[in-house]
Each structure stands twice: as structure tokens, then as C-alpha cells.
Amino acid sequence: MKVLMINGSPQSSGNTAIALREMEKIFTEEGIRTETIHVGNKDIRGCIACRSCLEKGKCVFDDLVNEAAPKFEECDGLVIGSPVYYASANATLVAFLTRLFYSTNFDKTMKVGAALAVARRGGCSATFDELNKFFTIAGMPVASSQYWNSIHGREPGEAAQDGEGLQIMRTLARNMTFLMKSIALGKEAYGLPKIEAFSPTNFIR
């Protein structure tokens, strides 16, 4: 099994990386392979709603989004970590996720998602909620921990002092591992849930 981890911070070794590495330790113990993609320091533009991806099967902007797409398709779980900027996720990360989820047409049902937020003080809950919406619109079960998935620190390295935050990350990784393994067993025994044909209902006609 494999988990794809997305670092949405501009800092490759900052507090978001500390949180992701704490999870990675548990995944390794549990026999789960991981790969981390550093997104926050890349030049990634937002979606322009051109809908070209519906025909081409990939985003019209050929950058990290298209590189990450096959890795997303093959993984069993996706972890997204972001610093908090004005009570929301890093805009570069949001641009990446919007295009990644929209431009990929493979079935994401039952891939497990987990989001985590890093802040000096406030805004973690709003960012956590923002990131989870990417999972739920794609039919991905959301892994939980013992608290909202947040850890605190401002200067690089300070998150390592947040004992409870680190424990939240470890618990999240264990719960996510259990959920992925349980879903794999469920697929073998029962298959995937039936997917109905999409029935769009527009409010303006």
C-alpha cells in the first residue's frame, strides 16, 4: 500500500514537513510506502475552467499537476499538509489541488484522505475544513485522529515542541492505515459501492 503526501508549505523543512514526517514514521512501521511531493514552493497557476481536461484527460497547463496525477491514481491514501495563511490554506496548494482533482477522471472512490494544518495560533480549523472538501467531493473517506488535525509553530522547527500536535499526527497515521487496510479487505469481500449515473440539477435554467 502507498500513501502520497503533499507538502503545501514553501518551506521544505518547516513545521508542515515535521508533521508529515511524524506521520511517515508510523506509515513505515505499518509497512506503508510513502512519497512526498513538495508543492508550496512551486509556480502553479490556478484553474481557468477551460474544460480541456475533459477531452485530453490531463490539465492544459503541463506542470507538477500532471506529474502528480499518476501518483495520485496509484496511491491508496492522500495526505495534504498546509500552513495557515489568513485562516486558509496556502494559495499555491489550493491551485494545485483544484486542478489535480478536477483534471483527473479516474475513480477516487475509497482512496483515504487526511488533511493537516499548521499555524502559529489560529486558523487551523478553517484550513482543515477547506482541505477536507477536496476529499468529500471525490468520494474519498476522511481519516480522523484524536482531535482536529492541527499542529502549532511559527518559526521552522517549533512544531517539534508541540507534544500533543505530534501525537495527533501519529494517531492520524495509525487510523489512516487501519482504514486503508480495512477498505482493501472490504473491496475483496464486498466490492465497491454502486455508483449511480450523475444527475446534475442546475438552479438556473
Give a written overview of the molecule:
This protein is an alpha/beta fold and 205 residues long. The chain has a single domain (2-190), classed as Flavodoxin domain (Rossmann fold, 3-Layer(aba) Sandwich), CATH 3.40.50. It is built from six helices and six strands, in the order βαβααββαβαβα. Strand 3 and strand 4 form a beta hairpin. The longest helix has 28 residues, at 163-190. The mean pLDDT is 96.
Topology:
Blueprint: E1 2-7, H1 15-29, E2 33-38, H2 53-56, H3 64-74, E3 77-85, E4 88-89, H4 91-103, E5 112-119, H5 124-136, E6 150-152, H6 163-190
Parallel strand pairs: 1-2, 1-3, 3-5, 5-6
Antiparallel strand pairs: 3-4
Taken together, the total number of domains comes to 1
N→C terminal distance: 45 Å
Specify the structural class.
alpha/beta
Mean pLDDT: 96
The major beta sheet can be summarized as: 6 strands, mixed
Judging by the overall fold, what is the CATH architecture? 3-Layer(aba) Sandwich
Radius of gyration: 17 Å
Q: Strand-residue fraction?
A: 15-25%
Low-confidence stretches: none
Q: Which descriptors apply to this entry?
A:
6 helices; alpha/beta; Rossmann fold; 205 residues; 6 strands; single chain
Summarize the structure.
The protein is built from six helices and six strands. By secondary structure, the chain is of the alpha/beta class. Strand 5 (112-119), helix 5 (124-136) and strand 6 form a beta-alpha-beta unit.
